[in-house]
Amino acid sequence: MISIDAVLSFFLLLVVSSGVFFVSKRIKIPYTVLLVLFGLILVPLVQIPVLNPILGFLTELTLTPELLFFLFLPILIFESAFNMNMRKMIENAWSISLLSIIGLIISATAIAISLFLILPLVGLPIPFIVALLFGAIISSTDPVAVLALFKEFGAPKRLTMIFEGESLFNDGTAVTLFLVILSIAENGFNGASTVFGGIGMFLMMVALGITFGIVMATLFSQGLKYTKSNEFISITLLIVSAHLTFILCELINANQIFGIQLHISSIIATTVSSLFLGNYARHTLSPKSDEYLNKSIEHLAFIANSLVFILAGILFASTKIDFATLLIPTIITILIVASARVLSVYAVVKPLNALKLEANIPKSWTILLSWGSLRGALAMIVVLLVPDDLRVAGWDYAFSIKELLLALVIGCILATLFIKALTIGPLIKKLKIDKPTPFNKAYRIDFGLYYLLTESDRLLEQKKRGFIGAENYKLISKVVNDKINETIASRDKLYSKYGEKLFEQTLRYAAVNVESHYLKELYSNDEINEAVYRKINGKLNLQKEKIEHGKYEEINPSLYIDHKDIFDRLVLFFQSLLVKNGVNTTEEKYQHYRAQSIISRKVVKTFLKMQEQYKRPVFNESAYKNVIDLYSKYHQTNEDRIEVIFKSNKKDLNDFINKLSIKSLRSSGNKAVNFMIEKDMADESIIRDIERMYLV
């Protein structure tokens, strides 16, 4: 039973975590590092006789395998996988899959062999199975602190994707490998039968994990279609999906199904389910609900990470393990783990670059991938799953296997947090990985200029209204105008070096984002069905990819099939068994061309407003003209197609078009509702009454 002291400790530690997060942003140190440091300091602090009666309850909340495994881990997996872009993952599938599977196996094996051979030299010989168990535990990487630093220092998106993708998938690989090795350690090694049995169990856990994840995601995505109109139910379904998938897997593992003992990787199942929902079912949410869900998931992940790291610090400081006895073996282990990471990264990246299976991974990225391998939450969770009474042949130490593994894991986590995490930032700068690409520079310059022109216009408006004096206006406007001139000079410099093509690339990229925004709005308003949405969205994804790589001239406006969206392809396959694929009915064709007409018109309207809003133009004139002409042509082409369809099917389409008009009208009403809510003119009860009384 949970005590009141533990509950109070839970909430006060959350308050402390928030304070630590705030401080970490000020002093630019990863907050996970400060959380562990606080936990380490807290234990000796509360043992001071004067403070113990007041603060002693703070150590009442302890890390347990159940708390970590069933409550925190699914949240962390969901937050990472749900926001992962499947297309980007497929682009880097070779590097991510090889690093997370082959790289992890190389690392675990290298660590095991090295510990088995070297630790006897310092008086601590251990059985190979124990060394292998540790290798599986410690080889998975924790992305939390690293990704925060990547974002802060502006690391390339592809490098961030590779690192995050590897961390996400090697969690499942590491735990699956750990469970297989733990089973061998508990049941003993019986030669070839044990080896083949272990391989079979590993493959079963992976295959069934993927299958079960897809099944669960399919069920949840179908449920979301029915709860589309109720954002609270939809968001609740998504948030609990990870825990339900995870726990159901563990229930199946603990019980026989029709007399058959199945082994399913709960982590792999939860990862696949979350990826599916994030990439395929997410569009069922309205933009407002999606934003709310993002904030909710981010907040839950923050709570989980905060508690894991601060409680880890408390656990490290309060453990009864004699670290003095194990100091030399721990230092050796830290060096071995770091070396094994370098070996595993280079063993994967070098052949990958040589075979040219995907875009080249630069040497600087390889160095950062090798060094930026922090250990954290998962290693802590997995080591606590080791049974307290685990025994293997040849173990005759006073401390248990779990105590040794825990000591080594603690040493590695502290070393990566207090050495690697604090040096990643300087390393990124030294390797010049934070240097933005010309595309990123141009994109920020264009929209940064719009920001500055808006500031300048607002400043002038304040002067006209008498909110700011003439002298202050003169001083502030000079600063703003200097910044505007500096930005324009930077753009001219980029233009002279890269030409018009670069700025057309940035505008077309922004245009596709505008199209995607309004396409989702049309789907949320029920003005297009799912088939139409997915077809146009597939086209936009393909176009965006071409634009990102500077190949927008190769865009084929009639190409819709998105081969990199694996989940969409699965859905299309299953649907093809029941109905013919594609947008075929007259109504769907009308929806399709109408949607394309609307989103292309919105692009023209958006850019026109931005370009002509102020005295100075925002965008490069020639690039702007090219994009406006292109989208005006798109708009007219789709309008012509709508007219052809309508003339040929006027009688059949009349009722359908009337229904679309009403839905479009309701969309305008929703804008009025959002305006009233934003200005605090109406609360939810008034809004409900307005919708009930005046909805057309």
Q: How would you describe this structure to a colleague?
A:
There is one protein chain. This protein has 696 residues and is an all-alpha fold. The model is unreliable at 578-582 (pLDDT under 50). Helix 6 packs antiparallel against helix 7 and helix 20 (500-524) runs antiparallel to helix 21. It is globular and about 85 Å long. It has four domains: 4-59, no CATH class; 65-430, Up-down Bundle (Na+/H+ antiporter like fold), CATH 1.20.1530; 438-498; 502-648, no CATH class. Helices cover 77% and strands 0% of the residues. The longest helix has 35 residues, at 192-226. The chain has 26 helices and no strands.
Radius of gyration, taken over Cα atoms and rounded to an integer in Å: 29 Å
Give the low-confidence spans. 578-582
What are the secondary-structure elements, in order, as H or E?
HHHHHHHHHHHHHHHHHHHHHHHHHH
Mean pLDDT rating: 84
The description of the largest β-sheet is: none
* Global outline: globular
DSSP summary, beta strand count: 0
Q: Helix content range of the residues, please?
A: over 70%
CATH topology of the largest domain: Na+/H+ antiporter like fold
Can you tag this structure with a few keywords?
single chain; 696 residues; mainly alpha; Na+/H+ antiporter like fold; 4 domains
Question: How would you briefly describe this protein structure?
Answer:
By secondary structure, the chain is mostly helical.
